[in-house]
Amino acid sequence: MVFIGVVGPFATLPQLIKLYFTHSQHATGQSLLSWSLYAALSFLWFAYGLVVGKLPIYVGNGISMVLNILMVLGILIHAGMTY
Amino acid sequence: MVFIGVVGPFATLPQLIKLYFTHSQHATGQSLLSWSLYAALSFLWFAYGLVVGKLPIYVGNGISMVLNILMVLGILIHAGMTY
C-alpha cells in the first residue's frame, strides 16, 4: 500500500497535460470545486502525515497536493471562475 | 481524519455533474487514464480496507471507487477512447 500511496498521486499527470497543453479549450469542463476540495483534502492529509511522522502519508499526499493545486490554477487560468 | 475519509469521496460529485449534465461537450478534456488509475487505486484501497477490517477505509474508498468508475464510463460515453 506504500507503493500505491507514492505512485497514486502521479495518476493526475495525464489530466494536467490535457488541461495545460493539449485540451486547454475544454478547461471549463473541469470542476473547480472538485479540484479545490482535492487540494484541500490532500493538504490536510499531508499535514496529518507530518504530525504523525508517517513518510508514505506525507510524501504521497504532498505530491498530490502540488498536482491538485496545479489543476486548480490551470482551471482558473484557462476557464476562469466556474464550479 | 475519519471525517475527511468519508466526506472526501463526494468531492467528485461536481465533476460528475459537469461531465454528465452541464459540460458533456468538454468530456474530451477529461483524462481517461487519470480517472482509470483513480478507479483502480480506490478499488485497491477498498479491498485493503475490507481485508484489514477498517470501516473508514473501505466505506470512503468504496464511495470513491463508484464515483471514479462513473467518471470513466462518462468519459467513454461522451468522449470515446482518449488518454
CATH class of chain A: Mainly Alpha
Shape descriptor of chain A reads elongated
Mean pLDDT rating of chain A: 93
Number of domains of chain A: 1
H-E string of chain A: HHHH
Helix-strand category of chain A: mainly alpha
Describe the 3D structure.
The structure is a homodimer of 83-residue chains. Chain A has one domain (2-79): Up-down Bundle (Monooxygenase). Chain A has helices at residues 2-7, 13-22, 32-52, 55-79. Chain A is elongated, with a radius of gyration of 13 Å. By secondary structure, chain A is mainly α. Chain A has four helices and no strands. Helices cover 75% and strands 0% of the residues of chain A. Chain A binds chain B through residues 1, 4, 8, 11-15, 17-19, 23, 25-31, 33-35, 37-38, 41, 44-45, 48, 83, and chain B through 1, 4, 8, 11-15, 17-19, 23, 25-31, 33-35, 37-38, 41, 44-45, 48, 83.
Task: Explain the layout of strands and helices.
2 copies of one chain form a homodimer.
Chain A: H1 2-7, H2 13-22, H3 32-52, H4 55-79
Compose a concise summary of this entry.
Two copies of one chain form a homodimer. By secondary structure, chain A is mostly helical. Chain A has helices at 2-7, 13-22, 32-52, 55-79.
Structural descriptors:
83 residues; Monooxygenase; 0% strand; mainly alpha; homodimer
